[in-house]
Amino acid sequence: MRILSVKQYNCRLKVTIQQTGKLNFTDETAKALGLTAENGVKFFMTEEPEQLCMAIMKVPDEDSFSLRRSGAYFYVTAHLLFDELGVDYRVNTVIYDLVRYATCDKEMGGMCYRMNMRQIKKRNENEEKIDK
Q1: What's the distance, CA 54 to chain centroid?
Q2: What are phi and psi of 117, to 5 degrees?
Q3: Domain ranges of the chain
Q4: What are phi and psi of 110, to 5 degrees?
Q5: Which of 14, 20, 41, 42 is deepest in the core (most CB within 10 A)?
């Protein structure tokens, strides 16, 4: 028997792509993942089904993005990656819920997470506000 623990399916862990293309970790996510400025983030795609994933690296390697800190927040400068993947973070607010994906930990060399995308259309400044 295998227990399907809530710890494994915790969607409170999330990251958001800023309009600049930086991938921003929420404070809660950074604490839960134990992020430090010495960590790195390695992105990878699963094949079937194709899904964007990330590995949090204790020690970055040549394939890892550097983890940066700005005040209390951590971020990764990955705009070129998201541009290549066709993620429209300039028009949409893009949030990824992180779901633990331990089956790839050994192969990737870090704690792995599937990145489940949510998109919300940003309001254009010229659009009228509707009061309800």
Answers
A1: 7
A2: -80, 140
A3: 14-121
A4: -165, 175
A5: 41
- Residue 72's pLDDT is 82
Taking Cα atoms as reference points, which of 69, 13, 80, 8 lies closest to residue 39? 69
Q: What is the pLDDT of residue 118?
A: 94
Q: What are phi and psi of 14, to 5 degrees?
A: -150, 155
How does DSSP classify residue 3? Answer: -
Whether the predicted model's global pTM rises above the 0.70 cut: yes
67: exposed, middle or buried (C-beta count within 10 Å: 0-12, 13-18, 19+)?
Answer: buried
At 39, list the tokens: 């960590």
Residue 96: its pLDDT value, please?
A: 96
Instruction: Look at residue 130 in the predicted model and tell me its pLDDT.
Output: 46
pLDDT block averages, 10 residues each, the chain of length 132: 71 89 94 94 92 94 94 93 95 94 93 95 64 43
d(C-alpha 11, C-alpha 29), whole Å:
10
Beta pairing partners, 53:
44, 114
Rounded distance between C-alpha atoms, residue 5 and residue 98, angstroms: 15
Measured distance CA(46)–CA(51) in Å, rounded: 5
Q: CA-to-CA distance for 11 and 52, rounded, in angstroms?
A: 16
